[in-house]
Amino acid sequence: MTALLRSTLRLCLAATLALSFVSCALLQQRDPLNVNVIGIDPLPGQDLELRMAVKIRVQNPNETPVDFDGIALNLEVNDQPLAAGVSDQRGHIGRYEETVIVVPVSISAFSVLRQAYGLGRTQSLQGLPYVLRGKLAGGPLGTVRFVDKGKLDLPQPGSTGW
Q1: What are the tens digits of pLDDT across the range 87-117?
Q2: Please, are residues 40 and 52 in contact by the beta-carbon 8 Å criterion?
Q3: Residues β-bridged to residue 95
Q4: Global pTM?
Q5: Which letter does DSSP use for residue 33 in this model?
Q6: Which of 10, 29, 35, 72 is at a distance of 20 to 30 A from 149, taking alpha carbons?
Q7: How many whole angstroms separate alpha carbon 102 and alpha carbon 31?
Q8: Quick one: 107 exposed, middle or buried, by C-beta within 10 A (0-12, 13-18, 19+)?
Q9: Helix, strand, or coil here: 36?
Q10: Rg (the chain; Cα; Å)
């Protein structure tokens, strides 16, 4: 073997080892984001459509920041689809940081009827189960998906509030 061939093989081996270490670092297991619904405010709607601004607090419990370029949400209440929304907002959640993101969502008239039918069979408007599924799109690590589950307390008929 010539000296040139040996040095080329050594260089290729070193580059392969370096790339494998970098790829292992990029593929480290990430803890899921902590996402909580912290508010829902009414927005002006159109025709038979209702609109709401869903406020979520996103906490990043990882050593690497999360950059995103777009967000999508789907909200189920009482095991039925209720609302969906998207936003092209961009953001950065640093390592061990949190941020509040507001996403407008739409509720179709059909979803309202489906929810009204389901709520008519419940004893109370308190403690309704909800599931919020979403994703923060883009960034160097790709799309980050999240799920938040909990109980929703709706205002009683005749009470103030939305």
Answers
A1: 999 999 999 999 999 999 998 887 777 777 6
A2: yes
A3: none
A4: 0.69
A5: P
A6: 29
A7: 23
A8: buried
A9: strand
A10: 23
